[in-house]
Specification:
By secondary structure, this protein is of the alpha/beta class. It has a single domain, classed as Flavodoxin domain (Rossmann fold). Helix content is 40%, strand content 20%. The protein has a five-stranded parallel β-sheet with strand order 2-1-3-4-5, sandwiched between helices. Strand 4, helix 4 and strand 5 form a beta-alpha-beta unit. Helix 1 packs across helix 6. It is globular and about 40 Å long.
Length: 169
């Protein structure tokens, strides 16, 4: 059984960058939720916003990840209008009940991270081992290493791993 998988959705690439950094820190498998429809431009942005606010589902290409093979799944998502994006909502509505332990990461522009994390907890149906909210500007500027390190350490311990230099139990 592998310790950790990271399942993420990213419209602009910010959340993907965070997921990739966490995958390196955790030696985790990485899987993307894909959106078959374009969300580029004003029209794509407005459709995304509307789906998030109305808590709608959408068509997705689900990642090929066998959940029961992992102790922990990290779910990484952007925040859209203080909500979980429709592709992530769709994936969780389909597979949330099959998730092992979870850890939650969100990236956000201005606000809404707390509401999105609460919604993620509701959608997964379980308390998270760890939660992390990162401002998009901080991610793009490379100012998140300490938070990513702390989150990875918390997930590693929750997944049965140990902190570097720590004695196993």
């Amino acid at each position: 059984m592998r310790a950790t998988a990271i399942v993420y959705y990213s419209r602009t690439g910010t959340t993907r960058a965070v997921a990739e950094q966490l995958a390196r820190r955790l030696s985790a498998d990485l899987a993307a939720i894909e959106d078959p429809r374009s969300r580029r431009g004003v029209q794509g942005f407005l459709r995304s916003l509307l789906e998030a606010v109305l808590k709608r589902e959408t068509a997705i290409v689900a990642p090929d990840v066998i959940l029961h093979r992992y102790r922990t799944v990290v779910i990484a998502t952007p925040v859209w209008a203080s909500n979980v994006p429709s592709p992530v909502r769709t994936w969780l509505n389909r597979l949330g009940a099959a998730l092992p332990d979870v850890a939650l990461v969100c990236t956000y522009g201005g606000s809404g991270a707390d509401a999105a994390l609460k919604e993620l907890t509701r959608l997964t149906g379980k308390a998270a081992l760890a939660e992390l909210a990162l401002r998009e500007a901080d991610v793009r500027a490379g100012r998140c290493d300490p938070q990513l390190d702390d989150f990875a350490a918390a997930v590693g311990i929750g997944s049965g791993g140990t902190l570097p230099g720590a004695m196993p139990a």
